[in-house]
Design a protein that fits this description.
Layout lengths: L1 E3 L11 H15 L5 H7 L7 H8 L21 H22 L4 H23 L13 H13 L6 H21 L19 H9 L21 H19 L5 H24 L12 H24 L7 H7 L2 H10 L1 H11 L7 H25 L3 E3 L1
Antiparallel strand pairs: 1-2
Helix pairs in contact: 1-4, 1-11, 1-12, 1-13, 2-3, 2-15, 4-6, 4-9, 5-6, 6-9, 7-9, 9-11, 10-11, 14-15
Length: 390
């Protein structure tokens, strides 16, 4: 990990829509949903006002199968795929810049694999916080990015046809891994192979994660998340690489780029929805089923297309500044959210009137104050050109 000073903030020549997208994702991730889900629970759960329940749904992870609430997913469920997709979009820009600085292919490969290793271990570190021992889990988003990042490097700059073929092979192979693994006795249909606790990915973890030192045998993740999620999630990042290459192509007009992004996004969304609706492959974010990779990937591409149109084509950029401040230091924002969020909230409750933090509204206020503090830290870093990179 490196801290770079005197690095210039976003300027002409950057893909401003990518800065805006990254900033939006990191802002809401660092804000942890502004405590809206906890506020709805405090307000009575199912007895809370309908508008609050709707907001709570979109600020939490819903049921195992994601379809079809608001076209199948909560907004909060889009945070991780967006995070991973953005990593892919930025890679063609990042490694083209390194090549222009004279970095050899082997030096760029070492950087990619070094970054993959660090990200994977950082994810384990965050999973181990407040634990009595190292918690060898690889389901944190940083670990998931790290596990696929090194392999993704080899596809940066390749032809779309090859990238599309790799994506298809990975997704079909993943689907076969699920459906060829025995379903629970007494169940029928393809959907039975994608149930929590009895699917191929979780079975792999019950073997793989017990190879690491731990005081108690690993029996399963309570949320059903699995290490092998990174395999289909690799395709989510690959979709990002393909979009990044398209947007870097100086021989194409902006309108053509926008049209291709929109078409690709709609196709991914529709194929994923159809596969889920017909139960050929349920849309399950927690094990990143192939239909989820296509479904969420479609959303990511469409959101990038929308921002590309608004920010880069129409030139409406001023509104993005609060988000760009966060997005320029994504690792810092993520680490603050994961490590000192609770402590920061406790400081506000210690030094401000206790009545401010009572009831459902108090939960939201605390979250807003914490995010405001985080933003000021990130703004100071931005103003002083301090950017933490891996």
């Amino acid at each position: 990990m490196a801290t770079k000073k005197n690095e210039k903030p976003p300027e002409a020549g950057r893909l401003h829509s990518l800065d805006a997208y990254r900033g939006l994702v990191m802002f809401f991730l660092a804000a942890s949903g502004f405590g809206i889900a906890a506020a709805a629970k405090k307000a009575g759960g199912d007895a809370a006002p309908e508008w609050l329940q709707t907001l709570a749904f979109h600020n939490s992870h819903p049921e195992w199968v994601s379809q079809f609430h608001f076209l199948g997913l909560s907004i909060w469920d889009m945070i991780q795929p967006s995070f991973m997709f953005i990593v892919g979009v930025s890679m063609p820009w990042s490694y083209a810049k390194r090549a222009s600085l004279g970095h050899s292919w082997s030096k760029r490969a070492r950087h990619a694999w070094g970054r993959a290793f660090v990200l994977t271990l950082l994810g384990v570190f965050l999973q181990s916080m407040r634990k009595p021992e190292t918690n060898w889990l690889f389901t944190n988003v940083l670990s998931q990015i790290g596990l696929g990042y090194g392999l993704l490097f080899f596809l940066v700059g390749k032809r779309f046809r090859l990238q599309g073929l790799v994506a298809a092979v990975v997704l079909i192979g993943t689907w076969l891994a699920f459906v060829l693994y025995p379903a629970p006795e007494g169940t029928a249909g393809l959907a039975a192979h994608f149930q929590q606790g009895t699917n191929a990915f979780e079975a792999f973890d019950r073997w793989f994660l017990n190879l690491f030192p731990r005081s108690k045998p690993f029996e399963g993740h309570p949320g059903g998340y699995a290490t092998l999620n990174f395999v289909p999630a690799f395709v989510t990042m690959l979709f990002g690489v393909m979009c990044g290459q398209l947007l870097r192509d100086k021989d194409r007009r902006h309108r053509e780029k926008l049209r291709k992004l929109a078409i690709a996004g709609v196709i991914g969304l529709l194929i994923g929805a159809v596969l889920g609706a017909t139960e050929i492959c349920p849309v399950v974010k927690r094990i990143w089923t192939p239909s989820w990779a296509l479904f969420s990937g479609g959303y990511c591409v469409l959101l990038l297309a929308l921002l590309f149109w608004i920010v880069d084509m129409c030139g409406f950029r001023k509104w993005t500044f609060p988000f760009v401040v966060v997005g320029m230091n994504p690792i810092t924002a993520y680490f603050m959210s994961m490590t000192i969020r609770r402590w920061t909230g406790d400081q506000f409750k210690t030094h401000l009137p206790s009545t401010w933090f009572e009831g459902a509204g108090g939960i939201v206020l605390e979250s807003c104050l914490v995010m405001a503090f985080f933003w000021l830290v990130l703004w100071w870093m931005y103003r002083n050109r301090v950017f933490v990179r891996i």
